[in-house]
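Appendix B. One record, verbatim.
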Amino acid sequence: MLQVGDPAPEFEAKSHTGATVRLRDLRGKKIVLWFYPKADTPG
């Protein structure tokens, strides 16, 4: 379990455009991650 102040673990995900985004490519930048359950999305 992560604690406040721990560095985020490395991961990658697909953006809304389908591009792969890697956390390591964003180091030093402020980012916001928004996760939501697939079951709560339309479609």
